[in-house]
Design a protein that fits this description.
The protein is built from no helices and 11 strands. With 126 residues, the chain is mainly β. Strands 2, 4, 5, 6, 9, 10 and 11 form a 7-stranded mixed β-sheet that branches. Strand 4 and strand 5 form a beta hairpin. The protein is globular. 33% of the residues are buried. The model has no long low-confidence stretch (mean pLDDT 97).
């Protein structure tokens, strides 16, 4: 079992920054592909960023490239999403997720993730 707990969301003005954290327990990050997704009510879950279990590969949605950075701290077993130059359209609930397979090729697809956090709300005011 893997437990994921997100934190760091909040209300920010457009152009501002937030850093989301996802603390994992139950398995080390070296055995997990980790992803960040976001979801608005009534919309499908949208892939934002992913990082491989080795930490050497990352993948970003076009909407995140150049503004968001995914990283991890092995000692803390925590994954981060640094979000800069936030826009009102970034408003959503952000979830982290863990995939226990050895593949990084499915990182953008929500249904291949085995564990999900409860989410943290990000609201960007214009």
């Amino acid at each position: 079992q893997v437990r994921l707990v997100e934190s760091g969301g909040g209300l920010v003005q457009a152009g501002g920054s937030l850093r989301l954290s996802c603390a994992a327990s139950g398995r080390p990050l070296s055995s997990l592909t980790m992803g960040w997704f976001r979801q608005d009510p009534g919309k499908e879950r949208e892939f934002i960023a992913g990082i491989s279990r080795t930490g050497t590969n990352t993948n970003y949605a076009d909407s995140a490239k150049g503004r968001f950075t995914i990283s991890r701290d092995i000692a803390r077993n925590t994954v981060y999403l640094q979000m800069n130059n936030l826009k009102p359209e970034d408003t959503a609930v952000y979830h982290c997720a863990a995939d226990t397979s050895l593949s990084f090729t499915r990182v953008t697809v929500p249904r291949f993730y085995d564990y999900w956090g409860q989410g943290t709300q990000v609201t960007v005011a214009s």
